[in-house]
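Form 7-S
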Amino acid sequence: MPVKNDALEEIETFSRVFRLGLLFSTTLRPLLTLGFDGMKKMSAWMDFSISPAYGKKYPDVPFGLTLIADCEPLTDSAAFDQYKRKRLRTMRKRETLAQISRRIAVYDRFFRSFGFPCPLPEHLERTVHSGFPKYNLFVDAHFMAEMCAGILVAVTDYDRVEGMLILDVAQAGETALGMGGRLFTTKEGEIVLRDEKEIICVLCQGADEKTRVRDTTRNVLFYSYGVPGIDAVHLREGLTVAAETLTRFGQGTVRGSEVFVGGSV
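Output:
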């Protein structure tokens, strides 16, 4: 039997996971129903809405969600390390790296327009020179999704989300408690993700402490923010990396994967 080369294997894996995401996106979605506070529920497999304010201010800006359920701790560290090295080799190819760098520059400009530094340029430089960082399976998958696609991805413990998730635009002076007890104070027009109790992530400032992944996390939600100038296809690419990683090395199951643009899928 012929042996598959690395490129063919990656294409087939991407296609397999992406088709699974399309299955959830197209065959299981019912008619839109009214959700929390009169907003439209956008997904059949998750309580998620996009506020009218977001749709008005960022009509063409995508946002993606992927939920991986019943994940287990990493058991085969050697195979995972080999997998990461393979991903790294692909990412470091000249043309691929140039495209990733251009997308990260788009995020950097958006962050700076609100007066905040973007973490992605530093992450990219460190990854190119030293490889992907080593934390745990969930956080490592998050970094690979970001760096392989050149987008911004967050990872969270879905079981700690309280009620519906809402993609929204902040008013000036809202507050949120970030990781490590940092206090975030929003600026007018910042992109935020809320649950029914509070802000759980401010795009330009960071994610909250409440929903961070822990060793006991089993249901893992990845969400990817676009900004003006970033296409939906790149969010799908990054979320596919995250899904492949957790299904392969965490024995998780993809419960849903969708990318929304301007209040629609």
